[in-house]
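hi support,

uploading two proteins for the ticket. first:
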Amino acid sequence: MGLSTHVLDTTIGAPASGMEVCLYTTQGQAATLVKQFTLNTDGRNPDGLLYDNASLKTGTYRLVFDVAGYFRARGAVLPNPNFLSLVTIDFGVADVSAHYHVPLLVSPWSYSTYRGS
C-alpha cells in the first residue's frame, strides 16, 4: 500500500524513462517539496513507493512531471513555446490504508491520469 506513480510515453508505447518528477505536500496554495526523482527504465520511482503505508498521511499532494524536458531529451522537435511543459496533478488522500497509484499517460500534446490500483 502507500503512494506510487508510473509514466507511459504514448508516442512510443513505453515507459517514460528519464523523466524528472517532483512530489509535494500541499496546504492551500502552499507546496512543500518532499522528493525529486528521475523515473527508471520502467517509468517508476527508482526507490519504489513515494510513501509507504506507514508514512502516507491524509491530506493533499502534488506531482509535477517535466514533460517538455523529457521529450526534448528524447530528441522530439517541440514548438516554442511548447504546448505542455510541466504537468501538475493535485490529488487528495482520504484513506491511508488504501493504495494510491497516480499513473500518467503523456505525449507532447496530451495527457491523461486516473487513480490506479
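and the second one:
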Amino acid sequence: MFGDRDQLREQFIKAWDRARNGEEMSALDSALAELIREHPEYHELLADRERALTAEFPPEGGQSNPFLHLAMHLSIREQAATDRPSGIRDLHQRLCGRFGPMNAEHQMIECLGRALWEAQRSGTPPDENAYLECLRRLERSPVS
C-alpha cells in the first residue's frame, strides 16, 4: 500500500466496492474490506468515490481521518501476524482478550500514532522499545 493519497484512498474504495459486489479480491482487498466492515461509520463515505477522494480531515475539524484510522488497524494486524516488532503478537492477543479486539486495537493505535509522531518529530526510525512499552502499559491499565 504505497503511493500518493488518492492512490491509497482508491485502494480502500475499490476493496469496499469489490466486497459489496461479491467480486474476487486479493488478500489485501480482503483485509481492507474486513476492516471496513468493522467500521460501519465509514460505509457511506467509502460508497461515494468522489467524496472519499476529496474529503479533508484536518485535526481542528474534530473528525479523524478514516483512511489513516483503517491503515493503522491494518498496520497493527500486520505487526501481530509477523510478530514485528518481536513480542507484539503476544501483546496483541492479550490486549484483545482483555479489552476485546476492536477496543484493544483502538488503544494500540494511540501507541502506534505516538511512536510514529515521535519518529517524525525527531527524524529517526520509530523507537520499537518505546512502542512496546506503551503497549505493555495498556496491558497493566485498568479496564474501562
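thanks. also noticed: Residues 101-122 form the longest helix (22 residues).
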